[in-house]
Write a structure and sequence with these properties.
The complex is a heterodimer of chains A (about 525) and B (about 325). Chain A is mainly alpha-helical. Chain A is built from 23 helices and 7 strands. In chain A, strand 6, helix 22 and strand 7 form a beta-alpha-beta unit. In chain B, helix 1 crosses helix 2 and helix 1 crosses helix 12. Classes of the chains: A mainly alpha (about 525), B mainly alpha (about 325). At the A-B interface, helix 3, helix 4, helix 6, helix 9 and helix 11 of A face helix 2, strand 1, strand 2, helix 9 and helix 10 of B. The structure holds iron/sulfur cluster (2 copies).
Chain lengths: ~525, ~325
């Protein structure tokens, strides 16, 4: 925890606004709350404008000479393209209902992190440049001049929003500040203002198919390691196939699960589950990323990265696509993919080969979530489970923002979790389901240099966990998102030590009774399971 | 500052009418020209704004889901909060527009003694809903000035509103509630440090203006010195409604202030945040079904993009793929 102060200090956050008028755009770049700029090479890979070396702490950001015009034209174009933007810029009544709904405001107390004021940062420019009243009355009507300081302010505050949409839930008009953030990040990208953790990942996805930049052989190699681990801990040798034509199902997971702890245990879980039910599936090295860093860059980049899924499904001739545990991946798949890259008329409506269930909820997109798939399997008794293997765990469920407010998947994961684990405790009502709190690091704010911001932004989530930790002895925070699996562990270390983090399929696999397995005194992490000796 | 500017503006406006309609005797301007102009601005402005929004397409289906999606048969979907049918969307919109459903969710986050708590906070919802419904009732009640005979439902509404039979003339409950709600909304803005920080003149101005309308109306009705001749008011109103305007003598200046405030509200409406009245219906996070995987949503400006195709990918990595036993389309 280099940049973040001690939790006690952070708790003393004040929500009283400063003296300085919000219309003053100048910002202090507090260490630990902003990201390093996108590398020129990443921008070049993606063909994005204004690749250069620059630093946010420099006075000169080396913007293109006509940057003002670019932003103006860019905003104009987007007003014509998105009704959401236009309506949201026009109708906010500044009632403040959204203000204390944002985890970044709760955690930081910075008034510009109130969703309403975050949106005003763009709205004030829009008023001045695009409305008659604003043009005439200027500041009096809430208009602001577009200056380089405004660009710097945008860079700072629109990378302090994780597009979690919690604000939009409470707004009486459904104003979604995430939509504003998406647009402002697009505008900033037009003049080459962006952060490396997003751009680097997007460039990697574009080139190699996954955000880690794993080339095909390495990607396969990593999964082979997981296969070895499964053999060691479970005693069963699996043979996943790659890029295999004619498989029934193409499986795509967030690539974080292939590489990073504790996501890898979830990936082991996927592999074991598929083996257990004998699914005819294949993994692609080309479409090897479920997550989509384009969503945090621009609509176009999102589409370019996402296009690989359908293209690969078509090339391999599979029937349908199964998606792994990820958050923003599912926002894109559920709400954007079919529109951007469909229609997927070369695929069939997903049908579970084991239960015969036809997933009509995905009859157009033809891609279902692994949790939907598992819930159906368990409901039909197709999995041999021994939930006792998870008895040493006391779990709670973190609803990831994107599958909550951008999809509405609440019951499926709870059903699965309760089926494989006997100890489950809900966090307080105002912090779960559609009201869930962000982990504090979505949309590319997971970089090391954002650590302080993440500890602030993750505070509401962490406090809810701490509550069930103290009350019920919860020791495992289960979730269905790859970013959560990366972001929540340090957050827990900081606010609620001793609470571990895992994906859902990991627990399913830990409870799975595999054919031909040997004695399994350890879990998938290779750790001894307390109290299992003498069982079975 | 913002609050004083707005207050001064509204006070200045009443002075302006006092001079114009009272001292200079320009009743025709204040009684006919300005109201007609205001209505015109309102109608044209409102329509233009809505058409302007409608002109921009909705490229993606992005409802904010606030309940269980429709997926497996045995999982109960949330028909209203995560609607997947047209009727579900209609239900959701009705709840939003008529009952302020989202505002009803409001909570208040507080850090006390190292704990974060979320209290239920329905005051804004209550103040908002009381304000809107009393205002609506009062507007409808005013139809009795513009119609002859007065429609039955207006009479009924009038009777219900004066049901408590307090005072003479009878005090309308809505008058009292409206003023109370307005004061609540105003005071809330001033007392909460965050709200005061972000409030613009455009937030205070409509509050003062509507407060001005309400107070001028109340003064006319209940205070003898401001009393106006109701029969003459009706003649003027009927004249306006039948496009046969006349200005009867002897209507007190308070009436012109009342009418002017209302005209200003109408004229100001299309250029302000008050357009949320129209906008709420067009909000894509509320008025779309959560069925994006069932039914394809078409984006009118969806255009091809440059992608990294599989062929390119294989060209980039063919050797390594072959070495790792990965199938390839073309041998090296
Ligand atoms: S809740 Fe909606 S209308 Fe109210 S301030 Fe926030 S964005 Fe504006
Ligand atoms: S989308 Fe989430 S992070 Fe962004 S302003 Fe709204 S609540 Fe805050």
């Amino acid at each position: 925890m280099s940049q973040a102060p001690k939790p006690e200090e952070l708790l003393r956050v004040s929500h009283i606004p400063p003296k300085k008028d919000w219309m003053d755009p100048r910002v202090d770049l507090i260490p630990g709350t902003w990201g390093y700029p996108g590398k020129a090479s990443s921008l070049e890979t993606l063909g994005l404008p204004n690749p250069r070396e620059w630093n946010p702490t420099d006075e000169d950001w080396k913007l293109p000479p006509n940057w003002k015009e670019i932003i103006h034209e860019g905003l104009k174009e987007r007003l014509e393209k998105y009704r959401s933007l236009k309506v949201f810029l026009d109708i906010c009544v500044r009632c403040g209902a959204c203000a204390d709904k944002c985890h970044f405001f709760i955690g930081s107390g910075d008034p510009k992190n109130m969703p309403v004021l975050r949106a005003e940062l763009l709205r004030s420019i829009y008023r001045k440049d695009f409305t008659a009243v604003g043009r005439m009355l200027g500041t009096f009507a809430g208009g602001r001049e577009l200056t380089e300081d405004v660009i710097k302010e945008w860079f700072y505050y629109f990378h302090q929003c994780t597009e979690c949409r919690r604000c939009s839930l409470y707004c009486p008009y459904g104003i979604d500040t995430a939509e504003i953030t998406i647009v402002v990040r697009e505008l900033l990208n037009l003049i080459g203002v962006n952060i490396d953790w997003i751009l680097g990942a997007a460039a990697n996805c574009y080139r190699t198919g996954n955000h880690l930049g794993l080339e095909p052989h390495t990607f396969k190699g990593n999964i082979d390691f997981l296969v070895d681990d499964i053999e060691e801990y479970v005693g069963v040798r699996l043979n996943p196939t790659f890029n295999r034509k004619g498989a029934e199902v193409l499986f795509i997971a967030p690539s974080g699960d292939v590489f990073a702890d504790p996501g890898i245990f979830t990936y082991m879980g996927y592999l074991m589950l598929f083996e257990h039910i004998g699914l005819d599936y294949t993994i692609s090295t080309y479409a090897s990323e479920g997550g989509n860093f384009g969503l945090f860059t621009s609509q176009e980049t999102m589409k370019r990265l996402n296009s690989k899924m359908y293209a690969e499904a078509k090339r391999l001739g599979v029937k349908w696509i199964l998606g792994g545990e990820c958050g923003h991946m599912w926002r894109v798949l559920h709400q954007y993919m079919d529109t951007m890259n469909g229609p997927a008329d070369f695929l069939e409506v997903p049908k579970s080969p084991l239960t015969g269930t036809v997933f009509d909820n995905a009859k157009s997109t033809k891609m279902i979530h692994i949790v939907e798939f598992m819930a159906d399997l368990i409901h039909h008794g197709k999995l041999k489970l021994n939930p006792k293997r998870n008895d040493y765990l006391r779990t709670t469920w973190h609803d990831s923002c994107n599958v909550s407010r951008g999809m509405g998947m609440f019951e499926e994961p709870r059903y699965v979790l309760k089926s494989v684990c006997n100890n489950f405790f809900e966090m307080p009502e105002n912090t779960i389901r559609e009201q869930t709190f962000c982990c504090g690091g979505g949309t590319g704010l997971n970089a090391g240099e954002f650590e302080y911001l993440r500890m602030m932004g993750g505070m509401p989530r962490a406090f809810a966990v701490k509550h069930v930790q103290e009350k019920h002895g919860v020791n495992l925070l289960v979730n269905v998102c790859a970013l959560d699996r990366a972001i929540l562990p340090p957050l827990m270390d900081y606010w609620a030590p001793e609470v571990a983090v895992s994906g859902l399929t990991e627990l399913v696999a830990n409870a799975l009774v595999m054919e031909g397995e040997h004695d399994r005194p350890t879990d998938l992490r290779g750790e001894d399971i307390p109290g299992l000796e003498g069982d079975e | 500052m913002a609050v004083w500017y707005s207050l001064l503006l509204v006070l200045g406006m009443s002075l302006f009418v006092y001079l114009g309609a009272g001292l200079l005797g320009l009743q025709a301007i204040f009684g006919i020209v300005i109201p007609y102009a205001a209505i015109l601005v309102f109608l044209i402005g409102f329509t233009m704004r809505v058409l302007g929004w409608a002109k921009s397409p909705v490229p993606f289906r992005i409802p904010t889901t606030a309940g269980q999606q429709k997926s497996l048969d045995w999982i109960k979907p949330s028909k209203i909060d995560s609607p997947y049918t047209t009727w579900g969307v209609v239900g959701r919109m009705a709840m939003e527009v008529l009952l302020f459903r989202s505002l009803f969710r409001n909570t208040k986050a507080e850090i006390t003694e190292g704990k974060l708590a979320y209290g239920s906070n329905k005051w804004l919802w209550l103040g908002g809903i009381l304000f809107h419904y009393t205002f609506l009732t009062i507007v409808i009640r005013h139809l009795r000035f513009f119609t002859e005979p007065v429609p039955y439902f207006v009479q009924v509404l009038d009777n219900i509103d004066g049901m408590l039979q307090i005072g003479s003339p009878v005090i309308y409950q809505t008058d009292v509630i409206l003023v109370a709600a307005l004061l609540f909304l105003l005071i809330r803005r001033l007392v909460s440090p965050q709200l005061r920080y972000l409030s613009l003149p455009a937030d205070y101005f409509p509050l003062f203006l509507i407060l001005g309308i309400a107070l001028s109306g109340i003064m006319m009705r209940y205070f003898a010195i401001f009393k106006v001749d109701l029969m003459s008011v009706k003649v003027l109103a009927m004249g306006l409604a039948t496009f046969n305007p006349t200005v009867p003598e002897g209507i007190g200046v308070m009436f012109y202030i009342h009418l002017f405030f209302f005209s200003m509200l109408l004229a100001y409406f299309p250029f302000s945040k008050l357009m949320h009245l129209g906008g709420v219906f067009l909000s894509p996070t509320r008025n779309l079904p959560n069925d994006s995987r069932m039914v394809r949503h078409v984006n009118p400006w969806n255009a091809p993009v440059k992608v990294h195709t599989y062929e390119h990918y294989e060209d980039d990595f063919r050797e390594k793929m072959i070495e790792a036993d990965l199938p390839v389309e073309k041998q090296a």
